[in-house]
Write a structure and sequence with these properties.
Shape: globular
Strand content: under 5%
Helix content: 55-70%
Distance between the termini: 32 Å
Length: 207
């Protein structure tokens, strides 16, 4: 297997790029990475993506670096997740301070201004797109399902049942992206019609 081939080299260092992909403890990719590489003595994570949307998303990344310290999920929930979800503003501030102190010991952060000094200033052009009727209808229907879910689960929609809430939000994002597809394609074609022009397109969804 590929895992056996990697481990047969007896590496003493693994550098895991795009490390934010191992934030979901249930994902097969996360399990495969941990099972395959956790035995390698030195492990580094690289990512250009923000560390987390929710604090529990960062635990699996921390566990990959220091499994003994961060492998206890119930301890992590008691010490970090629950105080951030249910604590007073003062408690949340204290918890975030503890996390920041830990990150200062394990994370090296570089911002674009520090490493890309030769680039010209960035220009942002926002183009509003009206969703075609069919996509607008699907979007509105999904938005209705999200509202119903939040109303029926007021106590848990942003807590224990956040996964379902987030699923509806991601579905809305995908429907909006799909509905903008034709306009995005037209915009790209205009740029490519200019002789010698090049373009890099980033998109959230494959469609």
């Amino acid at each position: 297997s590929r895992q056996d081939q990697v481990l047969s080299l007896k590496p003493d260092l693994v550098i895991l790029d795009e490390a934010h992909y191992i934030k979901n403890k249930e994902a097969e990719r996360t399990k495969a990475v941990h099972d395959s590489l956790i035995s390698i003595p030195r492990r580094l994570l690289l990512s250009g993506t923000p560390a987390m949307n929710r604090v529990d998303e960062v635990r699996k990344q921390l566990e990959f670096i220091h499994p003994g310290e961060w492998g206890d999920e119930s301890w992590f929930r008691r010490r970090f997740v629950q105080p951030l979800e249910n604590g007073t503003p003062e408690v949340r501030s204290q918890v975030l301070s503890r996390l920041r102190e830990y990150f200062q010991g394990v994370m090296l952060r570089r911002q674009k201004a520090e490493v890309l000094k030769d680039l010209p200033p960035k220009h942002v052009l926002v183009q509003s797109v009206r969703l075609p009727p069919a996509w607008r209808q699907e979007y509105n229907e999904e938005a209705g399902r999200l509202r119903d879910h939040i109303q029926k689960n007021r106590e848990t929609a942003f807590g224990d049942d956040y996964g379902t809430t987030r699923g509806h939000v991601m579905a809305l994002r995908q429907l909006a992206s799909n509905g903008k597809g034709e306009a995005a394609e037209e915009y790209v074609r205009k740029i490519l019609a200019v002789p010698g022009e090049k373009i890099v397109v980033f998109a959230y969804y494959l469609q």
